[in-house]
Write a structure and sequence with these properties.
Strand content: 25-35%
Oligomer: single chain
Number of strands: 6
Structural class: alpha+beta
Length: 92
């Protein structure tokens, strides 16, 4: 199990150019950061195998780059279980 998860869902009823842009952007980030989408089609995490804690930085980079486009996403969440970090805010 990953030490974090990123949940991303593209909004429905976007303009075609916006939908194409954001889907291609997500796909590009997945390739760059070696991420994969889980069976629920909204949860992204580092593609195994990886060593403990190696997955956190790519996950946060993935989330951080996508949150700039929140207006195109109905869900954009980052949750690091290890750090108790939810959307970039440490909860202690």
């Amino acid at each position: 199990m990953a030490d974090y998860e990123v949940k991303i869902r593209v909004k429905e009823n976007l303009q075609p150019k916006d939908e194409i842009f954001i889907k291609e952007f997500i796909e590009k980030l997945c390739l760059e950061l070696d991420m994969e989408v889980q069976d629920d089609r909204i949860t992204y995490s580092k593609r195994p195998p990886y060593k403990k804690l190696e997955d956190i930085l790519p996950g946060f980079i993935f989330y951080n780059k996508l949150r700039k486009y929140r207006e195109l996403l109905s869900i954009c969440e980052y949750n690091s279980y290890l750090e108790k970090d939810y959307n970039g805010e440490i909860k202690r």
